[in-house]
Inverse folding.
């Protein structure tokens, strides 16, 4: 039996949670012994032998890698499995040869992200961002709040992350959930779903807005100043999608004025957040350095399980799941 060659373009410069190590791959092979018989793995670390590995590879697992002339450098390559969900760092997609499939690991983040969204929503609902600001300033100021049950969450994006957040908020916190998507199709855990074109109609209903959409030409600056100002006094915002979806300068102004009660941001542009950014000192704002949805113990094991599940489809000639549609940019 001729085995498919899988080249792992590993990056030790990333945090260890993202390392695709031989130990982790071997553990996944033991979990999927029948499928493991069909593949042989090799590695480059920080691209030290990338060219040699990719020249013989049928499949690649990686995140950042050289793309110029890939068709000539990797004549056998048929599938790239990304170790993350976002793909904006690979745009424009004109480097992808005809017939090459590009898949992401969307869904791996879902359960961890849902817990974090629940935490962030509870923090905002109970005034923790406001109180944390007063603590840093050694300012004793009470803020009385009410329960979150029955409040309304508007979730922008109901994919793997946003859908899991909708389930968590609906089942655990008994919130009303309104989803905003490109297509407006009903969702199991949303009381209402509208198309993006109707975002202005639902924003004033939100007690908290959760951004869980990918960054595309359609979503960039979606929550601009005009739309943020449509939020009712005391509303909050959580961004776990991408920074450029939200006008952070307008958000900071609305937090400073007290119009918005609090925000939790996990994504920034650029990253790391520059020391000169006003966000560091914006009141009622909690910053987390883009680490909220990545499970420290299970991120790569789940990604590899997803890879092996797709490998079964690949071997059977079936369409791969999580394939990035370059026309819609995710």
């Amino acid at each position: 039996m001729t085995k498919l060659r899988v080249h792992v373009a590993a990056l030790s410069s990333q945090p260890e949670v993202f390392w695709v190590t031989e130990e982790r791959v071997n553990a996944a092979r033991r979990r999927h012994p029948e499928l493991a018989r069909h593949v042989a793995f090799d590695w480059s670390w920080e691209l030290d032998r990338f060219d040699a590995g990719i020249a013989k590879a049928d499949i690649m697992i990686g995140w950042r890698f050289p793309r110029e002339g890939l068709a000539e450098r990797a004549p056998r390559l048929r599938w790239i499995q990304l170790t993350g969900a976002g793909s904006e760092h690979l745009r424009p997609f004109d480097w992808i040869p005809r017939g090459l499939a590009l898949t992401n690991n969307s869904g791996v983040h879902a359960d961890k992200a849902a817990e974090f969204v629940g935490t962030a929503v509870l923090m905002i609902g109970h005034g923790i961002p406001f109180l944390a600001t007063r603590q840093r300033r050694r300012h004793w100021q009470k803020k009385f709040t009410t329960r979150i049950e029955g409040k309304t969450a508007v979730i922008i994006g109901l994919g793997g992350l946003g859908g899991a957040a909708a389930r968590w908020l609906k089942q655990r916190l008994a919130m009303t959930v309104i989803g905003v998507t490109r297509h407006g199709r009903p969702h199991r855990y949303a009381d209402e779903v509208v198309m993006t074109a109707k975002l202005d109609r639902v924003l004033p209903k939100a007690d908290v807005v959760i951004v869980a959409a990918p960054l595309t030409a359609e979503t960039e600056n979606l929550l601009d100043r005009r739309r943020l100002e449509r939020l009712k006094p005391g509303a909050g915002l959580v961004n776990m999608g991408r920074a450029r979806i939200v006008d952070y300068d307008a958000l900071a102004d609305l937090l400073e004025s007290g119009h918005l009660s609090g925000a939790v941001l996990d994504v920034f542009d650029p990253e790391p957040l520059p020391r000169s950014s006003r966000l560091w000192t914006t009141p009622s704002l909690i910053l987390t350095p883009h680490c909220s949805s990545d499970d420290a113990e299970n991120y790569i094991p789940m990604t590899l399980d997803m890879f092996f599940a797709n490998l079964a489809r690949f071997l059977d000639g079936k369409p791969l799941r999580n394939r990035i549609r370059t026309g819609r940019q995710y």
Residues 299-315 form the longest helix (17 residues). The first strand starts at residue 4 and ends at 10. The chain is about 30% helix and 15% strand. Residues 207 and 235 are 5 Å apart (CA to CA).
